[in-house]
Input
Amino acid sequence: MDMIFSAFAEVLSPIPLLMNLMGVMVGMIIGALPGLGSVVAISICLPFTFGMQPLQAMALLLGVYCGSNCGGSVAAVLINTPGTPQAAATSIDGYPMARMGKGGEAIGWALASSIFGGLFSCAVLVVAAPTVASFALQFGPLETFGLILMGLTCISSVSGKNQLKGLTAGVIGLLLACVGMSPFTADARFTFGFYALDGGMDTVAVIVGVFAISEVIDRSERMLHEAQGSALKVDKLKLPHISAYKSRMWNLIKSSIIGTFVGILPGTGATTAAFIAYGEAKRSSPRSDKFGTGEPDSIIAAESSNNAVTGGALVPSLALGIPGDPVTAIMLATFILHGITPGVRLMVDNPGIVYGIFVALAVANVLMWPCCCATTRIFNVLLKTPEPILMGLITVLCVLGSYGSRGNINDVAVTIGAGIVAYLLRRCGFPMPPVVIGLVLGQQFEMSIGQMTLYKADLGWWEYISQSPIALCLFAVTALILCMPLLRRLGKRSKTSVGA
Amino acid sequence: MKKQDVISGALLVALSALLYTQTSTPSSDMMFEDDIDPMKYPRMLVYLLGVLGLMLAGKGLILKEVVSEIPIFSRRTVGIIAVLLIYAGIFTTVGFFVSSLLASFAVAFIMGWRRLFVLAASCVMAVVVIWLLFTYILRIPLPVGTLF
Output
């Protein structure tokens, strides 16, 4: 409890609070711009954290994370084009409400539900992360290997329909993590004689290239083929009265639980959470017949669940060092950038930072309210920002992002190269999140294999593995996650055959 | 035949062959018998990449061609890629200010923005703000070139 109070004191001091506020503001603005989303928003803001203390940097990025989630729903309501993929479910009823002249009310429902979902997931994070982390302290090399292997399986779940391409992208990420000196000997690998690569690929440079630069190249042609909807006007944000929640409270709580739980599962993400919660609300709501015509129940379900993912996704990231999605992968990369090693010892070695993150996330959720009120009027103008000018600015910020982390021009070359290759891969249907997950987990994975080999000594592999029930459990869960798509397909097939 | 998959699969196989040549160099620091071979793990990944490339190419031969209305390479995308490469090339030689101004202007121009005065003004303003922010608030030195 003392840790929480001291974290409150630290986060509520002027500079971290200002960073949090700016993060929410910027996140809302970037999140509202269709096509950019949370990952690009965080990639763009990453260079601004270089000169900051770790907690200030995390406060800024957490603000951007929460703000972009909320900002995405504004675009979904006003122009029927979700700013972020997770806001897609919000537009189903948000846009019809805006067309009825209730745009401010729709944004109000979205905002209030987002704040509730975010705070709910924060509470779960505060309770769950330390418990999981203290359990994980018992882990030796074998258990760590099992854990990272389980983290890598989330590559399968973030790959969508194309598992083969997702797996290939994951292997590319693991290979990128091998570039540079071996962690065991002084041998340089995959450097092709370039001494500049001896230190390895800078994670930030690769992330910025893979997500932001490839987006700039992709948008250059795609924007010609996509029609931009015209924005509906909204003058004032109207928060729902507490009594309006009377018959909707269970929907709000249930959707927040769904969002938090989905967030904890590696590789699922806010979009999945929003649609699961939307489906559940449609099934159980007494007003389900009004869904699609401007029913707040649908907005409550979508928004509370997609923002509840933020706290849920941080549970495995902070407690175990396993990123569940690209956003948390960037967060872990930011830790490395600031000299903090993510992993099972994070909570023991840096409790101040971790508890600071809990509080910063809660504060960011609360700050969404004043920020959204302040920015509602400018959203009308903002959504008309010319995309070409925006893309020019993003290009400059990306290059600064990769240069600023180490002041090395080679990192700029890495960013541009990664961006061009990522663009080509994206266009060929390869998902990008597995590349980053492979890159972030790659070095730890190789390290754990090496340590395991040394600890095993003369024991046989089965003899060694069977000594650890935790490792056996982790391997079993990994196998289950891998087999899940197959089991689901078999289940569907048997259902169809029964139906026929 | 899905051309994109066949070509990307073949390229991945070629890439894995190229990377394999890098893993076949003898390791220098193997002092003890139970030391870890630093090339063993990367080599396994290279094999895996090759196999996945083959599977992808093979699958592409069976699948039907999907034609996208958005071309992978167009004058715009090639133009943007060229600007990015030039930007990376001149970033330290001409400095942050001039290179960033040119790059942001060129990206917006290639993407179709033709109101040149507005474009120039917004680019100058954005670059000045970023420069001031990095230099005086964040205290991160940005490269200064021969011009500025």
Q: What stands out?
A: The two ends of chain B are 53 Å apart (CA to CA). Chain B touches chain A through 73 residues (CB under 8 Å). Residues 3-62 of chain B form one domain.
